[in-house]
Write a structure and sequence with these properties.
With 241 residues, the chain is of the alpha/beta class. Helices cover 44% and strands 15% of the residues. It contains 10 helices and 7 strands. Strands 1-7-6-2-5-3-4 form a 7-stranded mixed β-sheet, with helices on both faces.
């Protein structure tokens, strides 16, 4: 909470302009391109990151597939996960998020502007529609972020079990999967301090369709989680004081 208040104070002169721009884009979704709105959101978030007293250590962007339309599958530690992805992943992406986030003040308006897909996990029919839409868009070249844990893990650099259903979209689209290891991102907002902090993001070797075509979704989930766990184990002490 302290870091959020700290950011509000440091960015107070910019916030009114951002809110007006977000409101404009939400009123003109059909007249503006996704790329234009994503570019605005990315620049806004990068400015927020620059004022946050967080040093971001990014590895592996050179491993990202040249072919667009892939699934980015990170572990989930908290609010900063999205900010570090916007900071380090230059190509536009969409995401499937929890429906509850659409009702969060300001955040919901940003998600609407970016046309992120809100999923009600209790509504199977609605969820299937979103999965099919994401599959179509991924097939057409749109990158997607989905957190396979479904919700954040509140145990620092540990993970909850990855859900096989996460990978249905990419299996049907026959597109690459990019495992992403987030390390110490929980420290940014979970630790009630504004002290400088280091956060890591590792883009790991992608799994291409030929790599996983003989696996079911649960096996893929276990494989992706094992790769991320190995990266966390090897790197989580890198910037410990």
């Amino acid at each position: 909470m302290k870091r959020i208040l700290f950011l509000i104070i440091r960015l107070l002169y910019r916030i009114p302009g951002w809110l007006l721009k977000i409101r404009y884009y939400n009123k003109h979704l059909e007249e503006t391109s996704f790329e234009e709105r994503f570019d605005f959101g990315q620049k806004m978030i990068r400015k927020i990151n620059s004022k946050s007293r967080v040093k971001i250590h990014c590895y592996g962007v050179e491993k990202l597939p040249v072919e667009q339309g892939y699934l980015i599958a990170p572990n989930h530690q908290g609010l900063f996960d999205a900010l570090i992805l916007f900071e380090t992943h230059d190509k536009p992406f969409k995401a499937i998020v929890k429906e509850e986030l659409m009702n969060v003040f300001v955040l919901g308006k940003v998600l609407k502007m970016l046309q992120f897909e809100a999923m009600d996990r209790q509504n199977l029919r609605s969820s299937m529609k979103i999965i099919k839409k994401a599959t179509r868009e991924m097939s057409a070249g749109r990158n997607y972020v989905i957190f396979p844990e479904g919700t954040r893990c509140r145990k620092q650099n540990q993970m909850l079990e990855f859900k096989g259903g996460t990978f249905k979209t990419v299996i049907d689209a026959k597109k690459p999967i990019v495992p992403v290891a987030l390390i110490d991102c929980y420290k940014v907002f979970d630790n009630n301090t504004i002290a400088p902090v280091d956060a890591q993001i590792h883009y790991l070797e992608p799994l291409y369709y030929d790599d996983y075509k003989d696996m079911n979704s649960t096996e893929i989930a276990h494989d992706v989680q094992a790769r991320i766990a190995k990266c966390i184990e090897e790197n989580e002490m890198k910037f410990s004081s």
